[in-house]
Amino acid sequence: MPELATTEFWRDLKPITKVFQADALPEVYTKNAATDDERYYVPFSETVSSRPLWISPTGNRWCDILWAKGAGLVNRHYHPHEVFAYTISGKWGYLEHDWTATAGDFVYETPGEGHTLVAYEHPEPMKVFFIVKGPLIWLDEEGKSVGHFDVHDYIALCRDHYEKVGLGADYIKTLFR
Known about the structure:
Layout: E1 42-43, E2 49-56, E3 61-68, E4 72-78, E5 83-89, E6 91-94, E7 100-102, E8 106-109, E9 114-119, E10 126-133, E11 136-139, E12 145-149, H1 151-164
Antiparallel strand pairs: 1-2, 2-3, 3-10, 4-9, 4-11, 5-8, 5-10, 6-7, 6-9, 11-12
């Protein structure tokens, strides 16, 4: 139950009694999702880490916060499906585009668009909330496919990291829906 209302117009409203439909799973609630506790951020490259917030193994989808404490790079890639991003802090962009995102900026990535994600030096770390559907297709400098990274690769990376930092490999399962 949320905190009790005091002066809000809806303070006498009662919650519904049937919250979940049959077979529905509970929500994922993450307090302080953009925490600075480094244990929750899985190294994604040498300079960028990812904090998974929600994962759908069967849908090959995830939500995460990408984090870089300074200049950072996620190698060239494209997504065969759309991706959504909301900038929490810091400064980032794609070498292939003429914009630079800062706190409060939203980005919609169209399916099939190749890019090289870079984080800039900034007084605040780059933290960006992403909604990713499907794999990342790694690209060479000519834009040709050289590999992929999907939800199963992400889960394996997270399991290894969480075991190493003491949260336990099964921590990642708490985010599956």
